[in-house]
């Protein structure tokens, strides 16, 4: 047998709304699950009282209950769950128990102030632009706050109306067994207030935002690399109701360079040098992206030898320093020889037979050395 709702609240059948409210508040505070952790009996009492209050505080449901009892409420749209507006006065004690913790009724128009969303777009720059820094002008289409209504979506003189779907809470509940699960109201997106069709701003049709084409100039610092995100404050989507605009994020992609490779802030360069330069040693000049660098190649340099030139690399983002330049010597073997060159190489080859270990001969040489 379900318990009598009047008994549950400890009031008589003639009790008026304020008596019922007072009685319920007392019981709800006493048996609140937060105050009685793990106490099933208290939780049961708490739920029963809530159900009793939900019925007795609603004039129509109370009338049916008085006339037909529990049976009358069944299938009569009677106690189908908890209408949160009934419990609005008890938010202080119920808190999140029924899923509307913090679900304060939003009435001031200020509560709809919403910052604009961030936007993201890719941007391609050349290797040189990444090195020196660059100012880029971008054309983009973005939603901006409507000028005529300041992002409110309202025509002049009109006001926001309480959302009928959620009663102004911004949250609606779905009943799941005894418990109510609340979620953001789909009608007002949690704002609790809506622009009625007749009150819409003609310019933005009540949205508060208008798509606009913009050309913006963005400074990009020297040193940026592929994958870095540059944040441009206030250049994202417009805010609503005077809210600030979001930010624009530019995702950098740096094009490759035919001569230089980059790793972090170091530059890599492959320097082709002649056979004789490598043997005799030489001084070369390497034109980097901002200056000419002198590099001494010592006599006897092997192909693949790497030289480091400090601070001749990429500028370090936000600092005054540079990475390093690594120069890899690549010995260039001539493919076409003039008659004269051929003579010299042949002569050289004769000499090498006696002096320079080459390839397999060098192994033979080493073995020979062992016996000497
Ligand atoms: Zn709503
Ligand atoms: Zn507007």
Description of the structure:
The chain is an alpha+beta fold and 372 residues long. The chain has 4 domains: 5-98, Helix Hairpins; 104-155 and 202-255, Sandwich (HSP40/DNAj peptide-binding domain); 161-194, no CATH class; 260-367, Sandwich (HSP40/DNAj peptide-binding domain), CATH 2.60.260.20. The chain is built from 10 helices and 15 strands. Strands 10-11-15-14 form a 4-stranded mixed sheet. Strands 1-9-8 form a 3-stranded mixed sheet. α2 (17-31) runs antiparallel to α3. The N and C termini lie far apart (114 Å). One zinc ion is lined by residues 146, 148-149, 153, 201, 203-204, 208.
Q: Can you describe this structure in just a few lines?
A:
This protein has about 375 residues and is α+β, with helices and mostly antiparallel strands. The chain is built from 10 helices and 15 strands.
Secondary-structure blueprint of this entry?
Blueprint: H1 5-9, H2 17-31, H3 40-56, H4 59-73, H5 84-87, H6 91-94, E1 119-125, H7 127-132, E2 134-145, E3 161-162, E4 171-176, E5 179-184, E6 193-194, E7 209-220, E8 229-232, E9 248-254, E10 260-263, E11 266-274, H8 275-280, E12 282-287, E13 292-297, E14 306-309, E15 325-332, H9 339-355, H10 359-371
Parallel strand pairs: 1-9, 11-15
Antiparallel strand pairs: 2-7, 3-6, 4-5, 8-9, 10-11, 12-13, 14-15
The chain binds zinc ion (2 copies).
């Amino acid at each position: 047998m379900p318990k009598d709702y009047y008994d549950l609240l400890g009031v008589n059948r003639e009790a008026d709304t304020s008596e019922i409210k007072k009685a319920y508040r007392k019981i709800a505070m006493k048996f609140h699950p937060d105050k009685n952790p793990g106490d099933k009996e208290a939780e049961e009492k708490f739920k029963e009282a809530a159900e009793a209050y939900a019925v007795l505080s609603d004039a129509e449901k109370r009338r049916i209950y008085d006339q037909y009892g529990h049976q009358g409420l069944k299938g009569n749209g009677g106690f189908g769950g908890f209408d949160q507006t009934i419990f609005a006065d008890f938010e202080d004690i119920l808190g999140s128990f029924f899923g509307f913790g913090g679900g304060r009724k939003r009435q001031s128009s200020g509560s709809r102030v919403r910052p604009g969303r961030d936007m993201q777009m890719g941007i391609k720059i050349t290797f040189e632009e990444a090195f020196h820094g660059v100012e880029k002008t971008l054309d983009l289409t973005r939603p901006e706050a409507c000028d005529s209504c300041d992002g409110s979506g309202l025509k002049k003189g009109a006001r926001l109306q309480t959302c009928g779907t959620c009663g102004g809470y911004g949250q609606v509940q779905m009943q799941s067994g005894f418990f109510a699960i609340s979620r953001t109201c789909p009608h007002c997106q949690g704002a609790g207030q809506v622009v009625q069709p007749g009150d819409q701003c003609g310019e933005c049709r009540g949205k508060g935002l208008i798509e606009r084409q913009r050309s913006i100039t963005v400074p990009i610092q020297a040193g940026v690399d592929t994958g870095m995100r540059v944040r441009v404050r206030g250049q994202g989507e417009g805010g609503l109701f005077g809210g600030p605009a979001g930010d624009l994020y530019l995702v950098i992609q740096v094009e490759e360079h035919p001569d230089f490779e980059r790793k972090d802030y170091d530059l890599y360069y492959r320097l082709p040098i002649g056979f004789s330069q490598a043997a005799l040693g030489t001084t070369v000049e390497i034109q980097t992206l901002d200056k000419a660098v002198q590099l001494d190649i010592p006599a006897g340099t092997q192909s693949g030898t790497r030289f480091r030139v400090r601070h001749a690399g990429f500028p370090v983002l936000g600092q005054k320093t540079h990475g390093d330049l690594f120069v890899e010597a690549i010995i260039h073997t001539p493919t076409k020889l003039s008659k004269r060159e051929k003579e010299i190489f042949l002569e050289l080859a004769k000499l090498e037979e006696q002096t320079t270990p080459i390839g397999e001969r060098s192994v033979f040489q080493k073995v020979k050395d062992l016996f000497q």
